[in-house]
Amino acid sequence: MNPRTDWTPDSWRRLHADQQPTWPDLGALDDVIKRLTGMPPLIFAGEARSLTSELARAQGGDAFVLQAGDCAETFEDFSADRVKNVLKVILQMSAVLAYSSGVPTIRIGRVAGQFAKPRTVATETVDGEELPTYRGDIINRVPPDRASRTPDAANILRAYEQAASTLNLLRGFTKGGFADLASVHEWNREFLAASSEGHRYEAIASGIDAALRFMRVCGVDSPSLHEVDFYASHEALLLPYEEALTRQDSTHDDDWYDCSAHMLWVGNRTRELDHAHVEFLSGINNPVGCKIDSNCTPQYVLELCDRLNPARHPGRLTLISRMGCDRIVDHLPPIIDAVNDSGHRVLWMCDPMHGNTFKSDGGLKTRRFEDIFEEISRYFSIHRAAHTWPGGIHLELTGENVTECLGGPDDLEDHELHAHYETACDPRLNARQSLDLAFLVAELLADFPPPATTDTRQFPPTDRPAPAAAK
Question: Which terminal CB of the chain, N or C, has fewer other CB atoms within 10 Å?
């Protein structure tokens, strides 16, 4: 897929790398990276190619993507129950979205590798002492003391081991009966029964009931009703870790794949065109994403497309807008128009979380549920006007009963944030807020023009997927 012949996994080292920690012991870091290079891959190249094919379907309007999971995974919060709980929420959300859109939902977790976080400042002052900022458990730790905040290369191996365990759990859950559609729908029914807004979504739930009954009457018992595909993704931030897990696929033209995750993305603070992170992502054959905000000009986004997907391969590049509900209407439409007019092939996604973050009156970083949904709603309206497919949403959420985002079905207020504020970095939607959001997005999808009516300029007639049937 990638025509570059001058790329190697370490070619990023010739360029400036943003958001990298200052390691106190470079010898220890080198030893860890050498060990990691010899360890088994976390995912296989064929799985990444399968996701590229799935994302190409979404790009053409024949699927919708739900990319969701933790802001930052931590070592202390890791358990089988937590993995199961976040998967349960994603399965519940995806069932509702698939029914409402009339196309499959592609499930991608922010999981099994989301250990590194970009930060605005390198240090912070705590009780009069200047300390390194917390950069994620793969680098340092949350407690505000010198020992915890000093980057430790041993954390890299622990992150790899936890990622491997997480992926093993996810494969077991998604292929071992936990993802059975009938069970997932019953979980949604339980949520609606306990929700003050449950009656609003009764039509969607009743429709799924009718569809399941119809399949049972017809004797339909496809494996897809009992198991699902689930992909892992994270921000490709800590480049030595990504380099160490990048391998050549001997079965497929010796192409390079970053085997730390099926999909990697470059974030808002590291997407400089001539810097290390874009260089690294330009050479791997995984599907890649790029966050874009209100500071991005249409021309800059086109240059990013040229760097990350010069061959314009379907499913290769996802543009994830993170504008904020007050800015998306002014800044996203000209970018969509420019990309479409250029002939670039991208999947559009909306990250309604990061552009709507602020500090509460009590001093905690938070987001309003209503702002999150408002950005998604405006994102859908923009794509409706552009006759393009709103390919997916990208969310920070957890399966736990945290109190980190204001509003939602329980109308969480500022003074309640302290009750269960557990995030290591950014505020996440809890399980109830996540499901409520899924039903609200489902209403937008149910009302959206079918994929056959969206813009086809990105797809020559020979390779455009067949349109989904209209609802």
Answer: C
Amino acid 425 reads: C
Q: Which two three-digit tokens encode residue 157?
A: 């191996």
Q: Which residues contact 185 (CB under 8 A, 6 or more apart)?
A: 95, 205, 208, 209, 212
- Is residue 117 within 8 Å of 237, Cβ to Cβ? yes
Give the global pTM: 0.94
User: Comparing 32-36, 83-87, 203-207, which segment has the lowest mean pLDDT?
Assistant: 203-207
Question: Which residues share a beta bridge with 131?
Answer: 124
- What is the rounded average pLDDT of the residues 171-195? 92
- Who wins on pLDDT, 332 or 120? 332
Residue 398 is given by DSSP the state -
Q: Crossing angle, helix 202-217 and helix 80-101, to 10 degrees?
A: 90
- CA-based radius of gyration for the chain: 21
d(CA 409, CA 435): 9
CB of 359 closer than 8 Å to CB of 390 = no
Contact status, residue 409 vs residue 197, Cβ threshold 8 Å: yes
361 has a pLDDT exceeding 70: yes
Neighbours of 144 (CB within 10 A): 14
Q: Please state at what angle helix 80-101 crosses helix 154-175, rounded to 10 degrees.
A: 50
Give the per-residue pLDDT at 299. Answer: 98
